[in-house]
Specification:
The complex is a heterodimer. Helix content of chain A is about 25%, strand content about 25%. Chain A is of the alpha/beta class. Chain A folds into two domains: about 270 residues, TIM Barrel; about 80 residues, Beta Barrel (Elongation Factor Tu (Ef-tu), domain 3), CATH 2.40.30. In chain A, the strands form four sheets. Chain A has an eight-stranded parallel beta barrel with strand order 1-2-3-4-5-6-7-11, surrounded by five helices. A seven-stranded antiparallel beta sheet of chain A has the order 17-16-21-13-14-20-18, covered by helices on one side. Chain A is globular. The two termini of chain A are about 35 Å apart. The model of chain A has no long low-confidence stretch (mean pLDDT about 95). By secondary structure, chain B is an alpha/beta fold. In chain B, the strands form two sheets. Chain B has an eight-stranded parallel beta barrel with strand order 1-2-3-4-5-6-7-12, surrounded by five helices. In chain B, strands 8-11-10-9 form a four-stranded antiparallel beta sheet, covered by helices on one side. Chain B is globular and about 50 Å long. The chains are: A alpha/beta, B alpha/beta. Chains A and B meet through helix 4, helix 5, helix 6, helix 7 and strand 8 of A and helix 4, helix 5, helix 6, strand 8 and helix 7 of B. Strand 8 of chain A pairs antiparallel with strand 9 of chain B.
Chain lengths: ~400, ~290
């Protein structure tokens, strides 16, 4: 059985390393220009080089998003940029604009993936791009499993499918709500998420929404139950959305899908509820299965006004470990106290609980609470931990 | 510059007598956000009438198509490929493939609404052998002129009408009422509603149909004030008549014909005070900064 690629977002170098260490086969990231996530901590060329070196040293891949729809002045510097990406050795670029795809093909030997911003919905469109040099198409998030099955039978290039994360409620690449309402171009990295705002709906003068504001916001996508089918369909890459998400989110979601894919391709009985429970720990917005089962309905929409869910507390990340003294040096990320029960989350073994004891600050002073984000602390951990292992506080 | 106007059976008679180069019709199942779409049989009849009146005829096939819709597309392409149709507007690349099969891609006008934004896009499409591209509606006039300065094929644009700004496959109105029970969607006879954001006043037309949910800018675009500049830049000027009362459309067409001859009069401009400039002067290059909410 072919194992699909697990593709994760990398909002910065730390997240890139976390994603790859926790089980992604490849990551995608945005540079400082030509990428849609203007708010993400985008990568300089030096960062990209470091990320590519790290990924390749682990036998993994890096794709760079150049997925804006550029206006005439936005293309300045694009060709030198993609040539530099080729020199650095990135494994592909992800493009939405036909003109940019064309420029990549004419000026470099880089592999091109067609972005989901093209909203590709059928195999004819996939094959159109294949004939014009694209090695992969990232399919529209509106497709059901049934539609994916039919499409994949006739597609000539690699296919990539979103399995987890935020979803545009509009067809991707076709929305100008943000342009109109906020002067921010959704197709050039400025999306203001106007689709998640509150509205009133009128019929003439009559306001139709009485009990709550009219809302269009969608729940995030979660596909744990459908990975098996996607593997059966020979989908080449399973993609997680979220270059803006936290380290904890990336680690948890990547590791969950990694283990799930591995078990599904290697074993017969897979405990799906266990995976659903695990992935819920990273959930910061309610999730649904999107279009996987067909047309969406109430269950796929967010109608509660305060829908953000607290994540399982991510309290720190391991920087180093003194095996002789059983002392870990960590970087604090969220408040916790001496005596709290914490959990080590790592790609190497199942989560293990321990009690936060012997906590000291950088000056070696004993402390009762860890309250300063990014502060270096030490504490006792009675078993070996490694850099990039995560400390979290169970709910 | 050619002037094309979107039409249906309720407007064809009057528009055939008007000073336009051609009429654009929607086609059942394959056109979205159009006036009443036609069957292939009716289209054939309309094509003959346009030919007889010396007008060009265009077909809008801008639907987004999933695998289950490919059969309908291919059947329809076969049926209309030999009709005297001057152009076919399309958004989904499956339509390109369907007509390329017959070697008729030169009939096609690429009309994805948001994807043609740079000279490189135009160059790409000119290499695909199609007739023209419809520039993205969120371009400023300045960007349109920059693209036109480097054009390698004829350019079209939506010059007048309500600009669509959102299309979801989801049935957002029905789903909302399914959840809130505020109203029974089935009992709401009127097709088009308005949407008002809580911090703003603009009413955005919104409706739901077989293709999903569509939202439009609050005011329709009118380009009379810059028609002289557009005439230099684009080759095809489209008047989209969606949402207009049939009775108002002849006047719009006459006004553009007049404005092409001489600068628009104040009386003419007054008729369009409920319109705006669309994105022609609206820069949309602002980016978010951390901590922004809206």
């Amino acid at each position: 059985m072919k194992k699909p690629e697990l593709l994760a977002p990398a909002g910065d170098l730390e997240k890139l390393k976390i994603a790859l260490l926790y089980g992604a086969d490849a990551v995608y990231l945005g540079g400082e220009s030509f990428s849609l996530r203007a708010r993400a901590s985008n990568f300089t060329l030096e960062d990209i080089q470091e990320g590519v070196s790290f990924a390749h040293s682990h036998g993994k891949r890096v794709y760079v998003t150049t997925n804006i729809f550029p206006h005439p002045d936005d293309l300045e510097g694009f060709v030198p940029y993609i040539k530099r990406l080729e020199e650095i050795g990135v494994d592909a670029v992800i493009c939405a604009s036909a003109g940019m795809i064309d420029l990549v093909r004419k000026h470099t030997g880089l592999s091109v993936h067609v972005s989901t911003q093209q909203s590709v919905l059928n195999h004819k469109a996939v094959n159109f791009w294949h004939k014009r040099g694209a090695s992969r198409t990232v399919l529209a998030r509106e497709l059901s499993l049934s539609a994916l099955e039919k499409l994949s039978k006739n597609a000539q290039s690699e296919l990539e499918v979103f399995i987890h994360g935020g979803m545009c409620v509009s067809y991707s690449g076709k929305c100008t709500l943000s342009n109109t309402m906020s002067n921010r171009d959704a197709n050039r990295g400025g999306c203001a998420h106007s689709c998640r705002w509150n509205y009133d709906l009128f019929l003439g003068e009559e306001k139709l929404n009485r009990s709550m504001p009219f809302a269009m916001s969608s729940k995030d996508l979660q596909s744990v139950r459908h990975i098996s089918k996607l593997i059966d369909l020979n989908i080449d890459s399973l993609k997680i959305e979220g270059r803006m998400k936290s380290v904890h989110y990336i680690a948890t979601v990547v590791q969950t899908y990694r283990k799930l894919i591995d078990e599904l391709t290697e074993e017969f009985d897979v405990d799906i509820p266990k995976y659903l429970l695990e992935i819920k720990k990273a959930e910061n917005r309610l999730t649904s299965e999107g279009f996987m089962n067909g047309m969406t309905g109430v269950e796929e929409q967010l109608y509660n006004l305060r829908s953000e869910q607290p994540t399982q507390a991510f309290v720190g990340m391991v920087l180093e470990y003194d095996k002789a003294k059983k002392i870990a040096t960590i970087e604090q990320r969220n408040y916790f106290e001496a005596g709290d029960t914490l959990e080590i989350f790592t790609p190497r073994f199942e989560p293990v609980l321990f009690k936060a004891e012997n906590m000291r600050d950088e000056n070696g002073e004993t402390i009762a609470v860890a309250r300063h984000p990014k502060e270096r602390l030490t504490l006792s951990v009675p078993f070996e931990v490694k850099p990039f292992d995560i400390l979290r506080k169970p709910k | 510059m050619k002037i094309l106007v979107t039409a249906d059976l309720s407007t064809i008679d009057v528009l055939l007598k008007k000073p336009v180069s051609g009429l654009v019709f929607g086609l059942q199942s394959l056109s979205q956000r159009v006036r009443e779409p036609l069957s292939v049989e009716t289209l054939e009849d309309c094509a003959k009438r346009c030919q007889k009146a010396g007008k060009e005829i265009y077909v809008n096939m801008n639907a987004l198509i999933e695998e289950d819709g490919l059969g309908t597309l291919e059947k329809t392409a076969k049926e209309i490929v030999d009709l005297p149709v001057d152009g076919i507007l399309f958004a989904d690349l499956a339509v390109y493939e369907a007509f390329a099969r017959f070697g008729k891609q030169n009939r096609l006008m690429y009309y994805p609404e948001t994807y043609v934004t740079s000279p490189s896009d135009v160059e790409f499409w000119s290499e695909q052998g199609i007739q023209s591209v419809v520039l993205s509606r969120e371009l400023t006039l300045s960007s349109i002129e920059k693209i036109a300065a480097r054009k390698t094929m004829p350019l079209a644009m939506i010059g007048h009408g309500y600009l669509n700004m959102f299309h979801s496959k989801r049935r957002l109105i029905k789903t909302f009422f399914d959840h809130t029970k505020d109203r029974d969607f089935k009992t709401l006879k009127q097709k088009t509603f308005t949407l008002v954001e809580e911090l703003r006043e603009d009413p955005y037309p919104i409706y739901q149909d077989e293709f999903g949910t569509h939202i439009f800018r609050s005011r329709p675009l009118a380009s009379f004030k810059v028609l002289d500049r557009l005439q230099e830049a684009v080759d095809v000027f489209l008047i989209d008549t969606l949402f207009y009362e049939a009775s108002r459309i002849p006047q719009i067409v006459d006004d553009y014909a007049a404005a092409l001859e001489s600068p628009p009069t104040s009386a003419l401009l007054e008729r369009y005070e409920d319109h705006d400039d669309g994105f022609l002067f609206q820069e949309t290059s602002e980016l978010k900064t951390r901590g922004d909410s809206q």
